[in-house]
Predict the 3D structure of the following.
Amino acid sequence: MTRPDDFARRVWAGEGGALGAALRMALAPAEAAFRGVVAARNGAYDRGWLHIDRVDVPVISVGNVSVGGAGKTPFASWNPWRARPSCFRLFWHLARAAASRTF
């Protein structure tokens, strides 16, 4: 029996047979709505309607690249050595905490 998360990954990848195609078709309106909301939000930031908070320290945001498997955790643990070696301990603990979470 296929686990639901395995099936979801296959559907996400464009596989899953007829059931996967039907699910993708059923979810198309939700996808279009989500794209519209994101485009509107991005436009609001571009026009200055939404406020951006600035901080006095360098910030590197690693995440939301994709659902998974994009290498965010390895990048987060590698990057501090390039940014500032003294920050490594904090980044390493954050990356390990993120990697140990199970869904």
Observations:
- The radius of gyration is 19 Å.
- The chain has two domains: 4-46, 53-103.
- The chain has a mean pLDDT of 77.
